[in-house]
Write a structure and sequence with these properties.
single chain; 4 helices; about 30% helix; alpha+beta
Length: about 160
Amino acid sequence: MVVLQTRVAVQGITGKRVTDFFINCTDTDYQRWWQGTHLQFHTLSRTPEVVGSLVYFDEYVGKHRLKCRGKVTAYAPGKRIEYQIIKVPALPAWLVLEFEDRPGGVDIVHTVKAGYEGFGKILDPLIRLHLSPAFERDLNEHARTEFAKLGDLLR
């Protein structure tokens, strides 16, 4: 399993405010968050309990354009949202956002996980070709910048 993780402290907002934003996000909201970098994020289908909902997102991370669908596989308001990335070719990949409220703000843990358990782990070096050290640097910078901007947007 390849794991890329960034922790960002954001002042003046709560985890609940962030999870509400993601669950109700529209393309307009997403573009306002980071114009020119965030292109689309919207719900394709919503379930009453949120888990099982499908979203679409399109954004730049460094020079990489990421366009895919995500299925909400875990949701705890104010605490966690997990999306399984649905892209062709099929790849076991997840985006996990965790929120830890603290006095004056929230710590956001942004994690990208991709890979197999058990025997499938032999494919991790192939996954690491895509999730390269250069991509990891771009993703870390992206997460730090985007969550600072989200704090500005949601305050």
